[in-house]
Amino acid sequence: MSGLYIGVDGGGTFCRARLVDSDGHVLGEAVGGSGNPRIGIEAAWQNIINACLEACRQGNIPPESYSKITLGLGLAGANQPLEQEQVIAQKSPFGQRYLLTDAHAACLGAFNGEDGALLILGTGSCGVVYHNERFSIVGGWGFPLSDQGSGARIGLSALEYSLAALDGISPSTPFTDSINAEFSLSAEEYVLYQNRAPLPKEYGAFAVQVFQFAQQKDPIALKIIQQQVEWVSQYLDALIAKGAQKIALVGGVSDAILKYLPARFSPYFCQPQGDAMAGAILMAKAQIGRKAI
User: Which PANTHER family match (predicted)?
Assistant: First the structure.
């Protein structure tokens, strides 16, 4: 058995794995927990391997053939040498593997390996331009110092404004009342939440309420979105300055925030041709990325 490839999209909340043959036929596809090595490499790697194994189970691939499968890994948080070394050091039942970030993989998938640009707005955020087989990256340095426009940053702002409202520092609104009710109207509950170092995806869970209350014209929810829209606009301008002519917006936040973005960006936006798993499969087939065996 030969010509098998698995593309992994390792996001901050979920990782997804797709198994294809040399003709691109999908043989299996699975979802697991976070594939971001920053949550802890052991946990992230186990999530990745479990998703790959499930895809193989669906494709009726016998374990003795796993070593012939090439992996393309597009992982959130894998833009630093430390995380890359951690990923490469992990044991795998599979064959060769090629590593880049989820942003790289998503950009390759969005334009089927051709030139283009992409902005991920998911649990985290990152921009990438692919031109003449070279990548340029904007942001993506991790929560909370980077990842502007992401679900995690929006959720963090939700808690920040709600706690301030609880203290009488900023106005209370139905939105802040809703968040504060979840924390039992207690600042101490916020501190306990913060002290246990919640993951970015846990902050990101609060972003849903921000957009729900923004639909009702809640002033604080709208303020949070507008602040993040300013950041997203700066990311888009940076991509355009790097030569982007077409930009695909992807990630769970992208659809929700799209209508709030300035109209001047509309001519640049396009629908992705494929997803990050498709891009990771391209990585595996074309041997793009940092190689590990």
Answer: N-ACETYL-D-GLUCOSAMINE KINASE (PTHR43190)
Q: What is the DSSP-derived secondary structure letter of residue 209?
A: H
pTM for the full model? 0.86
Closest CA to 110 of 206, 204, 205, 244: 244
The CATH fold assigned to 115-271 is Nucleotidyltransferase; domain 5 (3.30.420)
Q: What does the pLDDT average to over 203-229?
A: 98
CA distance linking residue 117 with residue 142, whole number of Å = 20
Q: Across 105-156, where does the E strand assignment appear?
A: 116-121, 125-131, 134-138
Spatial contact of 18 and 28, defined as CB atoms under 8 Å apart:
yes
pLDDT averaged over the chain? 95
Domain locations along the chain: 4-112+273-291, 115-271
Which CATH class for the 4-112+273-291 domain? alpha beta
Round to whole Å and give the CA distance between 118 and 13. Answer: 19
Lowest mean pLDDT among 1-10, 57-66, 69-78, 167-176: 1-10
Q: How far is CA 286 from CA 40, 79, 229, in A?
A: 29, 20, 36
DSSP SS3 for 237: helix
The distance of Cα 126 from the centroid of its chain, to the nearest Å, equals: 8
The helix/strand/coil state of 20 is strand
